[in-house]
Amino acid sequence: MRVLAAMSGGVDSAVAAARARDAGHDVVGVHLALSAKPATMREGARGCCSVEDSHDARRCADVLDIPFYVWDMAARFTEDVVEPFVAEYAAGRTPNPCLRCNEKIKFSAVLDRALALGFDAVVTGHYARLTDGVLRRAVDPDKDQSYVLGVLTADQLAHAMFPLGESPKSEVRAEAARRGLVVAEKPDSHDICFIPSGDTRGFLADRLSEAPGELVDAVSGAVLGRHSGVAGFTVGQRHGLGLQAPAADGRPRYVLGIEPVSRQVTVGPVEELDVHALSASAPVWHGGHGVTEDVVVQVRAHGGLAPARVTVSDDGLEAALAEPLRGVAPGQAVVVYSGDRVLGSATITSTR
């Protein structure tokens, strides 16, 4: 097959491209330029998409002896990932930009262009497995990325390749070293690529006008302080709340709820974060939902799993959790699993 390898400049995508080539595919490497100011997109091990990364990707392509190109996706990335990220926080929700990048950029914009150019599939360095079109967890549970791929449609998965799904990360790094790839020991990127400083609140403050509101205690109803905007908070947050008085029992307080219209942020004790059920909309099912009662739902890229009973409708799902989860917020994705198989995903709209 003729395949396009998305090369970020990291070790995973480089080894994925190498394995696709070794499997006999006609491989072309492409690096996605996602920032209008790429020099600002890396600080140490944080972030990605810098000039440094594009150079690393090119060096790896040279070692693998495959053609290499850079595609400018900065405008599309801003429109489909960064701007919705800001808007979701302003609306009191908690988005996952990595998930939306996979959905809107790597497997929509890039895949659409690749197919138009005559490629058969897109290869990425994600840790996940595809068997007969079925998306499954990677064998390395610590690196499994099936959650952030759960938004992909069956048609998109039919044109995807994930060569790393059967390997632990240590094996991938060792292979990169054997192949002479300069990224063999390159640190993994962390946090949100377009916020390399890790200061999400500062990033949002630069893009949103102040909209002051109250911090209210869920138990007593007392006003504990004021804030400059709900975008600075997410459900489950403990630090940086700006509370003007400690709780009567001396215990820490957490963000329990965010109301963007009244601009009220509710805080309370940690046990109030327990979520026993959730509703979600905009479902994506892989080849028909096939949901049974014996499923597991996941609400975060790492962790946040619980057995659940899922009820499906045309426009969403309801999940009753067998054990409570904490820090679940509207805007997050819920991915439904049967064993290691991804059945589908949806966007959380409310919790109970």
From TrEMBL:
Its main location: cytoplasm. Its EC number is 2.8.1.13. InterPro entries: MnmA-like (IPR004506), MnmA-like_C (IPR046885), MnmA-like_central (IPR046884), MnmA-like_central_sf (IPR023382), Rossmann-like_a/b/a_fold (IPR014729). Residues 143-145 are annotated as: Interaction with tRNA. It is found in: Cytoplasm. The record marks 126, 332 as: Interaction with tRNA. The keyword Lipid metabolism does not apply. It catalyses: S-sulfanyl-L-cysteinyl-[protein] + uridine(34) in tRNA + AH2 + ATP = 2-thiouridine(34) in tRNA + L-cysteinyl-[protein] + A + AMP + diphosphate + H(+). It comes from the Bacteria. Gene3D superfamilies: Adenine nucleotide alpha hydrolases-like domains, HUPs, Translation factors. ATP binds at residues 6-13, 32, 125. The active site is at 101 (nucleophile), 193 (cysteine persulfide intermediate). SUPFAM superfamilies: Adenine nucleotide alpha hydrolases-like (SSF52402). The keyword NADP does not apply. Residues 276-348 form the tRNA-specific 2-thiouridylase MnmA-like C-terminal domain. Coiled coil: none annotated. One of its GO terms (molecular function) is tRNA-uridine 2-sulfurtransferase activity. Keywords: ATP-binding, Cytoplasm, Disulfide bond, Nucleotide-binding, RNA-binding, Transferase, tRNA processing, tRNA-binding. Residues 202-268 form the tRNA-specific 2-thiouridylase MnmA-like central domain. Catalyzes the 2-thiolation of uridine at the wobble position (U34) of tRNA, leading to the formation of s(2)U34. NCBIfam families: PRK00143.1, trmU. Belongs to the MnmA/TRMU family. This is tRNA-specific 2-thiouridylase MnmA. It comes from Actinomycetospora endophytica. The lineage of its organism: Bacteria, Bacillati, Actinomycetota, Actinomycetes, Pseudonocardiales.
